[in-house]
Amino acid sequence: MWKSPWARWGAMLGVALGGFFDGILLHQILQWHHLLSLVPGIDDLRLQVLWDGYFHLLMYVIALVGLVGLWRAQRRGAVDWGRPLAGAMLVGFGVWHSVDALLSHWLLGIHRIRIDSPNPLAWDVLWLAVFGIVPLVLGWRWLRRQGGGGGGMQNVTKATAALALLAAGTAGAGAWALMPPPGQDLTTVVFHPGAGPREVFAALDAVDGRLVWSDRAMGVVVMAVPESRRWDLYRHGALLVSGSGAPAGCFNWSRI
For tag attachment on the chain, is the N or C end more exposed, with fewer CB atoms within 10 Å? Predict the structure, then answer.
């Protein structure tokens, strides 16, 4: 079954969706860990979020490669849409979580599922079982029940619709992370390296803002500032301002 290109591309897309699932849920919403939470010397929130961004960028690349591969296979009428493709994606989803547990949690030790837990190993094992082993086994069983690839206009129409849904879902998973949470009247600002308290307070005065929280180095600052004035912060040393430019939206999900 893995000799079929569509199965490999579907599994690759499943890997990307598994990465998006972890990144959005664990890094941003629950904030149980960041990608490099346990790496010595990387305790600056700016670096943690930056590496989370690199991780999501990698998932976008993997998803794009998988989608392009599926599209090319579909044009040759070689994709077995339906349960077999869903099985391949589940296999990829499970493979991602299995590799992440073995490599990131236990061998490299760059993070754990819940680093603030008194028993992080229990969370690692539970996450591996639920989101790694179960999807892997279920997807493998679905793949083994695959039928022959289909042809004809009906199958092409179904293939195009399914691929469009996959593309929309993959893009939506990342785009959702760029949106600030509803009802959020604060903004998170990342200042350029080397910016000190004097520059931060000068920026606050320039936009009539109020300091709510900052890290020790005042490189990442949460402030209350009128939405119409947020763009002005880019003229006062800001590198990223949540709510003012798509790449910064996810910063507003950070806990204070």
Answer: C
